[in-house]
Amino acid sequence: MTETVVRRVAIVGGGLVGMLAAIYFANRGWQVTVFEFRKDSRQLEDTALLSNRSINLALSVRGLNALKKPGLGLHEQVLGSVIPMKGRMLHLDKGRLVSHPYGVFGECINSIDRAQLLKLLLDTAEELANVKILFEHQLKYCDFDSGVLVFENHSNGSEVSQTTDLIIGADGAYSTVRSQLMRPVRMNFQQEYIPHAYCELNIPPVTDADGRSKFAMDPNHLHIWPRHSFMMIALPNTNKSFTCTLFMPFEEFEAIKTENDLMSFFQKHFPDSIPLMGAQNLKEEYFRNPKGPMMSIKCTPYNYKERAIIIGDAAHCMVPFYGQGMNCGFEDVFLLNDFLDKFNVDDTKDTNEFRESLDRALNAYTERRHTDAAAICDLAMRNYIEMRSDVVKPLYIIRKRIEGALHAIFPKHFIPLYTMVSFSNIRYSEAVYRWKRQGLWLSIAAAAGDGS
Ligand code: FAD
């Protein structure tokens, strides 16, 4: 017998991943309620203060692919507001600049404003009749078997409860849904802080002779100042400024106590950036902006039966050095939807059948996704060393050139790791496997070359 019931999903966390999930589930015809702890970021003047996260992000193929699927013009609108970056621009000692393209076929990653992207997702979701977004609602507790969630409404201090068919935890690295899941689920959990922190700085636009505002550096590159044990990067913004991020061990940040300390540090390590930032601006930003920690989280499984699942940073938080955290979270949403299709999770089925198919879909998703999430968490950690140190080593540069040349000749059979991760939808674990196999062939070829 078929029932005409509307399936309900409660999404905890109205960040980037939670809002994309809301749009996907609304598209499936579910009744969606998003509970977000913070105030509506669209009402705030300084969105950077609210997010306490990076101001801009690198969006690549996996993220773009997930934005395409629900239609609604998301993909086109996003592409209209990004700045393509075709490679890394290395700022070496004495201000020497070297460009390393990301791909041999002109592939680009895209710089996008976090607040603008979140606004687009919030606006799109809000226009859908079956989506409700409740801000200032903080999840306190959930009972998965009965599908009951309890929130504190911070606007009036009241307690709010909601019953739902499915709970999605998209509540970020410090996820409450994940901690709650650890009670009924035998969850393996691994968390690692790195010794580095990050601090955001800013390079404002410059004014040309005609009074027009322009970028102070080439906007179509991701700029890197690699300094071995630390580094600074800069991504362009549409207002012609750059957001710089200084990654450095906590102790180094703590050693900079005065403006003089700061200026001598920058004179020594990043002298070419001082005139770009402006000394006064640098001092203000450095001492005002937070020094954020970075960590990597792996856990499994992601779901509890057909009742709850975690996605995005709640399931797999990674250090930001591969620019994949959000991309991977968007891909989670795309794949989860795909698994619901594959396992015929159809709301017109009777409740038992619906629950059984949802259970199979969530189990299959979690099994497959964990392998890939763990792979990208490890790659992100590895890229932490590559970006700040390896990029200037001659062997690294030679290897990159050989890989690029082989990819140009055999585009389907030899694909550099960065290309597989950032410019394809190849599973992260498969990318790692292929990269290791390719490395082996390169070593065999080099050994054969030595022997001849
Ligand atoms: P979040 O963005 O953390 O959103 C979680 C939401 O849940 C928040 O709005 C929070 O308020 C809410 N919440 C939390 N607890 C509760 C609760 N109890 N009840 C209700 N709501 C709750 N990724 C890229 O792809 N490319 C990049 O270039 C990139 N650069 C980065 C640079 C830096 C410095 C950092 C730190 C990260 C970067 N990332 C990047 C990673 C990216 O920011 C994250 O992967 C992404 O924001 C994860 O989105 P999310 O929605 O899962 O989590």
Automatic annotation (TrEMBL):
Residues 9-340 form the FAD-binding domain. Its cofactor is FAD. It catalyses: L-kynurenine + NADPH + O2 + H(+) = 3-hydroxy-L-kynurenine + NADP(+) + H2O. It is found in: Mitochondrion outer membrane. GO terms for molecular function: FAD binding; kynurenine 3-monooxygenase activity. The keyword NADP applies. One of its GO terms (biological process) is L-tryptophan catabolic process. The keyword NADP applies. InterPro entries: FAD-bd, FAD/NAD-bd_sf, Kynurenine_monooxygenase. Its main location: mitochondrion. GO terms for cellular component: mitochondrial outer membrane. It is an enzyme of class 1 (oxidoreductase). Keywords: FAD, Flavoprotein, Membrane, Mitochondrion, Mitochondrion outer membrane, Monooxygenase, NADP, Oxidoreductase, Pyridine nucleotide biosynthesis, Transmembrane, Transmembrane helix. Pathway: Cofactor biosynthesis; NAD(+) biosynthesis; quinolinate from L-kynurenine: step 1/3. The chain crosses the membrane at residues 6-26. Its EC number is 1.14.13.9. Belongs to the aromatic-ring hydroxylase family. KMO subfamily. Catalyzes the hydroxylation of L-kynurenine (L-Kyn) to form 3-hydroxy-L-kynurenine (L-3OHKyn). Required for synthesis of quinolinic acid. This is Kynurenine 3-monooxygenase. It comes from Paraglomus brasilianum.
